[in-house]
Specification:
The protein is mostly helical. It has helices at 3-44, 50-66. It has one domain (3-66). Helix 1 packs antiparallel against helix 2 (50-66). The radius of gyration is 21 Å and the shape is elongated. The mean pLDDT is 91.
Amino acid sequence: MTAWGKRKLEKRMKANIISLKLFYLFSFFAVGSLTPLLSVYLANEAGLTGIEIGSIMSVGPIVMIIF
């Protein structure tokens, strides 16, 4: 591989890494900003009890442990 080809490959790899960093940034930002408010929404708007809200909020972590 020539020096020009290596530089082109490195530039493409940097672009891919930046894309992945931005994807993870926005993904964690979305989950982190919506998850705490979901329980408040379920209590006030949907009228669920504490046990129902706890059951709904625990589904995600339980699935992550299993899979």
